[in-house]
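ARCHIVE CARD
Drawer: 12
Card no.: 0347
Subject: one protein chain, sequence and derived structure
Cross-reference: see card 0346
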Amino acid sequence: MTEVRFVATCSAPLDITFEYLDDHRNVTDYWHGMVSYRPVGDPEHGVGAKFQAVSKVGPSSVKSTIETVEWERNVRVAYKSISGMDSYTSFDFAAVDDTHCTVEFRVEFQLPGGIAGRMMEKTLEPFVSTAARNTANNISHGVAAHYASRLAALERDAADS
């Protein structure tokens, strides 16, 4: 199994960061190469939530159905593929202080065995590493923008009161 890890540092409180990453509507904004990510049935978050995902990997599209297998607010979310490429993805959240946190993202995937699988793994490795770096950057920027919009809305509400 191939594993890629990275840590994104976010300029937002832990709960805001978790809220942003737990919302399936944001996945295509932060996950590099993800072109479609939609819920399949209920629930739409938490353990048991299922999603149909389409990722662009180089010139190819990869379709998967994934299921949320772990979900603890502000701590951890993990997904496992139930169809498509065999994969396991997790997000682990940690507060740094009141307005900053980190998110450790890990993705593991299994390609077919044999020579063809090893060749495919070597071909995909650079794409996956680049996608991981870009995803970390997208998470940091997306969370900061989400937090700024939440703060602006609070300020508008306070001014209107």
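Annotation on reverse: The chain has a mean pLDDT of 90. DSSP finds three helices and seven strands in the chain.
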